[in-house]
């Protein structure tokens, strides 16, 4: 079923926030959202808007008959989400954009994982709140790169009533054929978003992205990077939120021009087979290393269809495949083994 816009407005302080461009009704009851003016509300509205804006930008590039399927779901433990998936399009073979706004109690495995990252977690049950938006876009053409982004906010409540909070996320690009102008445009757009808040952010989070999206058993990065950060709880909650907001607003200008540029490029059988092989590496990273995927799969009441929406419709694994030396495929492989500084900083 295709859902249109939701004719609602949310009052916050003296501002009227228009939510008519959301893909579905917010997860939190609209009357509750009207009452609240806290970070939970701000983040829910941000992820809803990001989802709506990005889905409509993608649909604008597709045939008029091709739209996102919208699946609004609830979670027995608390909260829910909105999963938007477009499949078998002319431009996008599979595009998934997911919002989740959930509450509950952390399982021991998640608590242990957070302690390993330096979080001071209490013994016993830990109530949590999480809101985030994530997307993975698998174009049909191997000339168009795949993009992934995820931005999230997390709260845990201690037994004494105090709250720990942090933000995380990032945006990264996975091309099948290397076009340096595309990669420079992508990184430049992200750097502009980072520089609004700190001149140190881009360099720091670009390296974090290269290190995080590394397929250890293959000895290569998943793609050509972008930015990535986690456990961000400084300089303060408001400034951290504004930084995340700038990052979400950079997604469309960083990616949509690349789709427009390459959606009519010619390609053949060999390019398609290479794309399927690279998608196989994408699947390997997501299922073996990705922290968000593992957290979702081990959270009670997890919705596996939404968690696994990042996987492509088609992928391929070929035994001991090596690209031909000097080929375009080999050029990309070398870059993936040794991340570059794309902006000559």
From TrEMBL:
Keywords: Heme biosynthesis, Oxidoreductase, Porphyrin biosynthesis. Coiled coil: none annotated. It holds the Pfam family Coprogen_oxidas. Pathway: Porphyrin-containing compound metabolism; protoporphyrin-IX biosynthesis; protoporphyrinogen-IX from coproporphyrinogen-III (O2 route): step 1/1. GO terms for molecular function: coproporphyrinogen oxidase activity. Its EC number is 1.3.3.3. The keyword Oxidoreductase applies. GO terms for biological process: protoporphyrinogen IX biosynthetic process. GO terms for cellular component: cytoplasm. The keyword Protease does not apply. It comes from the Eukaryota. Homodimer. PANTHER family: COPROPORPHYRINOGEN III OXIDASE, MITOCHONDRIAL, OXYGEN-DEPENDENT COPROPORPHYRINOGEN-III OXIDASE, MITOCHONDRIAL. Belongs to the aerobic coproporphyrinogen-III oxidase family. This is coproporphyrinogen oxidase.
């Amino acid at each position: 079923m295709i859902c249109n816009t939701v004719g609602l407005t949310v009052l916050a302080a003296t501002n009227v926030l228009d939510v008519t461009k959301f893909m579905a009704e917010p997860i939190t009851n609209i009357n509750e959202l009207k009452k609240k003016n806290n970070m939970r509300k701000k983040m829910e509205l941000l992820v809803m808007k990001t989802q709506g804006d990005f889905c409509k930008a993608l649909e604008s590039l597709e045939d008029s008959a091709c739209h996102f399927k919208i699946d609004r779901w609830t979670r027995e433990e608390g909260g829910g989400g909105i999963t938007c998936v477009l499949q078998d399009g002319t431009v996008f073979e599979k595009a998934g954009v997911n919002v989740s706004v959930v509450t509950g109690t952390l399982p021991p495995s998640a608590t242990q994982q957070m302690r390993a990252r330096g979080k001071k977690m209490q013994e016993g049950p830990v109530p949590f709140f999480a809101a985030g938006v994530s997307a993975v876009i698998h174009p049909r053409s191997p000339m168009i790169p795949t993009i992934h982004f995820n931005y999230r906010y997390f709260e845990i409540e201690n037994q004494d009533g105090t709250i720990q909070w942090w933000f995380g996320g990032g945006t990264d690009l996975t091309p099948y054929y290397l076009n340096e102008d595309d990669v420079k445009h992508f990184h430049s757009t992200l750097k502009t978003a980072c520089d609004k808040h700190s001149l140190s952010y881009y360099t720091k989070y670009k390296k974090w992205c290269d290190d995080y999206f590394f397929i250890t058993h293959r000895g290569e990065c998943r793609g050509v990077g972008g930015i990535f950060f986690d456990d961000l709880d400084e300089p303060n909650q408001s400034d951290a939120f504004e930084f995340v907001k700038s990052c979400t607003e950079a997604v469309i200008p960083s990616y949509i021009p690349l789709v427009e540029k390459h959606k009519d490029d010619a390609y053949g059988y060999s390019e398609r087979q290479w794309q399927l092989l690279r998608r196989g590496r994408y699947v390997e990273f997501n299922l073996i290393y990705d922290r968000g995927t593992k957290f979702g799969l081990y959270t009670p009441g997890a919705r596996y269809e939404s968690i696994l929406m990042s996987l492509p419709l088609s992928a391929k694994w070929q035994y001991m495949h090596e690209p031909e030396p000097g080929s375009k495929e080999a050029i990309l492989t070398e870059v993936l083994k040794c991340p570059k500084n794309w902006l000559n900083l």
